[in-house]
Write a structure and sequence with these properties.
homodimer; 215 residues; mainly alpha; 9 helices; DNA-binding; DNA binding (chains A, B); TF_MADSbox_sf (chains A, B); transcription regulation (chains A, B); nucleus (chains A, B)
Chain lengths: 215, 215
DNA sequence: CTCTATACATAACT
DNA sequence: AGTTATGTATAGAG
């Protein structure tokens, strides 16, 4: 790293010397980088910029693109991200309905349409989920009912625990159209987001039973 | 780059040798990088990974973090972007109502609410824009009307061009509630997204005038 | 820019 | 991980 005299590794104050050194060493660095990547089959990307450029992502991209062109090296996937990130950030901002000052009526209509589409998809998915949970709920209840019937028969034969067995029998669910069961579960316990999961809890069974008894 | 014999710059096939070389040269590269950054007051970041790891952003981040820790160097802003990008991508996907397989009912409700909010904002902004365009439209028409009156008076005095002056007079707009004017402009020319801007065009004035005459 | 003496990096070997 | 012979990178000069 020296040549005609050793140098101390500290900031070179003379501007000309510093720029010359920068140029020379950058060349050497790139050469070594390329050699390493070829010799060892490694992916290497350099991000190199003068301190005064810090923060200028655009400039960074230029440097990277130049580096990519000059070496033919494919740099990391990360390289396209600043631009990409900006695009995504703007996209999110858009969907959040923020910073709409620059949008024309036309743009807003389009955005509204997109939001409408998203809303439809979300509601579809919500319905799907509800249907699924409903199915689980019905299956669960069917199982419980069968078990209850068995227990009841067993109890009457044994002449004990009959009342307990009845507590597990929910004829209400047999007579309702599909949608109502979940609605019931939700209206009885509005804070319930996962009726199926929660149904396993005793207190919910109690609630459902109470509702059932009232009807 | 040699020492005990020169080497050709091409992939080292012997795995052990390749790994040793990688390790040594990487050290040298980092040393030179650090020297350059100190000597020339430059910001340099290295992104370095074995080819088999390509695509594993997580691993890349680990390398970068390790590099940052070991050198104390602040690497570029870009360093946080992969994580950020992922977050943003997921966010966008969310607002587009895509890939909802992993969302629970609870999440969907929240998303629905957010979309509802965005929609409200967008519609508010649309209304704002409409109001503004309406205001511009009214002002424009007022100006034209005044000019028309002046021209009409001038014309009657001069005994010429009276018919032409009347063409610029739109009493229709005076009698309508605020919303109707824009609706009219839009219904007359449905392809119009910017009634105000377009009103300056002669053909639209013609259309409005025609509509006015029919009523 | 080029040149060149010299310090440095490192390939091969232990 | 250490050693060393040798090729490279490069500081300073032209």
């Amino acid at each position: 790293m020296v040549g005609r005299g050793k140098i101390e590794i500290k900031r070179i104050e003379n501007t000309t010397t510093r720029q010359v050194t920068f140029s020379k060493r950058r060349g050497g660095l790139f050469k070594k980088t390329k050699e390493l990547s070829v010799l060892c089959d490694a992916q290497i990307g350099h991000l190199l910029q003068h301190r005064q450029d810090v923060g200028l992502v655009h400039r960074t991209l230029q440097i990277i693109e130049k580096y990519q062109r000059s070496t033919g090296a494919r740099i990391l996937e990360r390289d396209n991200h600043p631009r990409e990130t900006l695009r995504l950030e703007l996209g999110i901002q858009r969907y959040l309905g923020e910073d709409m000052g620059c949008l024309q009526y036309e743009d807003l209509s389009k955005l509204e349409q997109e939001l409408e589409n998203s809303m439809a998809k979300v509601r579809n998915r919500q319905n799907e989920l509800l249907q699924q949970q409903l199915e689980n709920l019905r299956r669960k209840i069917n199982d419980q009912e069968q078990r209850a019937v068995m227990e009841f028969e067993k109890a009457t034969v044994e002449g004990s625990k009959a009342v307990h067995a009845m507590d597990h029998h929910f004829p209400f669910f047999e007579e309702q159209p599909a949608g109502s069961i979940l609605q019931l579960a939700c209206s009885v316990l509005p804070h319930l987001q996962y009726p199926y999961l929660q149904l396993a809890q005793p207190n919910i069974q109690d609630s459902l039973r109470a509702h059932n008894h009232n009807n």
